[in-house]
Structures are given as C-alpha cells and as structure tokens.
Amino acid sequence: MSTDFQRAREALGDRLRELRQSCPEGRLTGAQLAERLHWPHSKVSKLENGRQTATAEDLRAWAEATRRPDVAGELASRAAALESQVRSWRRQLASGHRPVQDTINAEHVRTAVFHAWQGAMVVGVLQTADYARHIFTRYAALHQSPNDTDDAVRARLQRQEGLYKAGKKYRIIMWEAALHALVCPPSVLAAQLDRLTGVIGLDTVELGIVPFGTPLNIPPANSFWVMDERVAIVEDWHAELWLDDEQSITTYMKVWNTLQKSAVYGSEAQNVIHKARRALNAQ
User: Fold this and answer.
1) Local mean pLDDT, 10-residue blocks, the chain (283 residues)
2) Could you give the count of Cα atoms lying within 13 Å of 267 in the half-sphere of its Cβ?
3) What CATH code is assigned to 96-281?
C-alpha cells in the first residue's frame, strides 16, 4: 500500500472521528456509534485509525448516524480521491472487466510512449483473443466478478490499434517466465508465442525478453505500465495503483531501466521465444 494512500486514509479517519465526537446530539463513543450503525465496534475503530478503507455506503451511513447528512458529499469526494489512486479490484470489477478495459483504453489513446514490465504473463496489448479470454476467465473466477469475457476481450483487442499508429512507441519488457506460464491450453499459448515473434518487427514496438539465467540487478516483481512518464499503473492482487506523483513515476522508471539492462531484443528475443515454443511442443 502506498504511503500517500495510507496518509489520505488516515486523514479520512480523523475526519470521521471528528464527526463522531462533535455529533449535534452530543459526543458519541465508538461503541455507541457502532450500535447505532449495527456494526461491530472494531469496524468503527479501524475506519477512524485508517486501517480499513471505507466504502461509499459506509460514509453515507456515518454521516447519517452522526446527524450530519450535509457532509455526505464531502466524505464521498474524499473517498473518490482515495479510489483515484488505489482502485480495488472488488470495486472496479463490480460490473465486469469491460469497464476496466475501457478506462485503460482511454489512457492508451492519449499516450505516445509506453514503458511496460510484465513477469507473469504476456502483456495485455500483445495478447491474442484466445489468450486474453483465458486470462479474463481466471480473474473473474478469482474476484467473483460478472462474467463479461467476450466484451472484455473485444475491448482489449481494440487497444492493439495503437500498435499500428505512427507516433506511438511501446517499450515492453517481459520475463521469460511469461512465455512458459500455462494460464491457457498449450495450443493457445503456442499461437500466442507465434504472435509475439510477429510483433518484433513492428516500428512501434520494442519488445525485450529477460531470459532465464541472466543476472538481475533487481527482483522481477509485480507488473506495471508507465504512460508518457505521466502516470504509473501498477497491478497487485487486491488493487490497481494509479500513481501520478513525480517520486513514484521516477521509481518505476528506475525499475524499468534496471530490468531493461538484462533484456535481449531482435533476433535474440526471437530465439528465446522459439525456445519456449519448442519446449511447449515437447510436452
């Protein structure tokens, strides 16, 4: 969890505590407010101390219970500011994967230079339809989200139009592990690997592969995108982080540049992909 996010959550907790203590009917204890809200006392404590993220419904109920319905809008704005940086998958996927893909697509349209690192699977903008379908299906099962796989796949493929537009530059590096991960049937992975060899010659794409056995100056941790050095989008299991502060972007670009030094390109990258393809055929 980012430090800035935690500070903002703690600031929201301070505001909630202030509302409880200044209730027009008289100061409420945490236990009294919990009883009024039909919540466990621990939830009130966690929200006030920044140890739990309040939902929109939590904040509306808090405003009503402290007899300050007039501050509901203010609390909602604070929550929106939190969500703009740390976007939980639970909330983002409430309506399925398609809306998330549409949001990312909008960022892709306005971005000229992309830097990406992906260590666990093929990066989204280079995925085939069948490969993407299996990825979405698995994440929908994990998060118990609505299954809108076909719509999500179409939205993800729409993003690939940028690969053929002059002025765009996709600087992508992947760990060799992504070429071997059987997150789909072998036949689908085989077609996906063939797709990767085909994009290496595109003018807009610089695809680097970090081979197994290559010395690494930093662990190949979680995946991320940096858009025009304007925003870094970082994926985690519980949420997607959208970071636009200079320090965070500088950190992620430093990570990218460090990993990039271990990558191979062009014919060397194709050789690594072909090796993964041969290993797949041998299974």
Assistant:
1) 66 93 94 95 93 88 95 84 75 89 91 97 97 97 94 95 96 98 96 96 96 95 94 91 87 97 97 95 76
2) 0
3) 3.30.870.10
